[in-house]
Amino acid sequence: MEQLSNDQIRERILKEISKTERIIEEYKEMTKPVAPENAIGRLSRMDAINNKAVTESALRQAEDKLNKLKFVLTKVGQPEFGICKKCGQPIPVGRILLMPQSFFCVKCAS
Fold it and tell me: Which of 5, 22, 60, 100 could bridge 72 with an S-S bond, Cβ 3.0-4.6 Å?
């Protein structure tokens, strides 16, 4: 298991926040409506609508992750930060970055 200082954890969370913000901007660009004057076929338009719905869902998930990462950032340095609420063992930093909403280690979460 990787052991990092609070400053290193903060830095990784900030990088993940920055990366997530870039992804959100890309998703926002991809979810803009297709202009009706763009001549595309009926099936292509249906594909575009379907792809837009999928991208909108990914956008909502990315925005949710961003909010959770920002919340987790405020918890870094507190005694309970990174400790599983069930078994009391440290939660790996990778898990904190991938699933910032989780207060449990992988073993206890399953």
Answer: 100
The pTM of the full predicted model, rounded to 2 decimals, is: 0.77
With residue 46 as reference, give the H or E element that holds it.
helix 42-75
Please count the residues of the chain: 110
Convert the pLDDT of each residue in 47-58 to its tens digit: 777 888 899 999
Q: Give the phi and the psi of residue 41 in degrees, each rounded to 5.
A: -65, 165
What's the pLDDT tens digit per position in 55-108?
999 999 999 999 999 998 999 889 888 899 999 999 988 888 888 878 899 999
What secondary structure does DSSP assign to 48-89, as a single string?
Answer: HHHHHHHHHHHHHHHHHHHHHHHHHHHHTTSTTTTB-TTT-P
